[in-house]
């Protein structure tokens, strides 16, 4: 003979025609339930023989307390460019940093170091008043080598990207030597021999010449031609770039940022029929483009991890032996770099 089924919270809720949450609150004597309804729910539960599980209640209470105690403290994401609006290019960095911070029990607040009326001493005072001890500094993408003055004494701080100049602070950035090496290796494998690297003075400064250096070492072009295949100028000058690429008989155009297909097409260099195209910063929306993915999530998450580690080690201010993390990129093939059939000289 089978034992009668034990009544559940659902049975009490149905009998009283209320929700399970209301029954749970009434039985735990929490607020939000009128005394008359709470008494009726308890009487119904007793009549049905329903009893709460003390062990389960203790477990749920412990979980609720753990969630509340997981919160550690707030971190600051500090924009260093002029203005008080985020740079669209770097918004994914902020968003991924916030997501990583929340997974580790932190909250991320954003501040604008060069907003109207803001000064470095004032920002320091604001952070200290809010009890914020960890800072992530986002770069300014406009100047070649922006130097920002911020007294990091008392703060755990990490610089994002390669452009910000502030000695003594930890940094996480992409490995530009690896990015260009990876791209040129794929260009060579696809059968191209005269790739051109196009940079603006700003980009060249922000990457501290690493892209140029990597190109000069790893380009499949003849050594005597490599300097001539590096363009350093205005990347929006369509006429000048078209003439420059044609004069050098370049077969691939390599850019660091942006989808340049329409720009090249308008200059009479249709991609990939007239010239192949490679991006060193292939973003998610750039479909069919061959290039290197620089993971914003990896960079931002690493930066948060570095700040959290500094806080745990009680390392504040400038450091004598600075930690620098270099992140590699990942190659993604695309239609803008089709494989060519290499021409071999006939055997003698």
TrEMBL record:
This is Transcriptional regulator, LacI family. CDD domains: HTH_LacI. The keyword DNA-binding applies. PROSITE patterns: HTH_LACI_2. It holds the Pfam family LacI. Keywords: DNA-binding, Transcription, Transcription regulation. It comes from Chthoniobacter flavus Ellin428. Residues 8-61 form the HTH lacI-type domain. The keyword NAD does not apply.
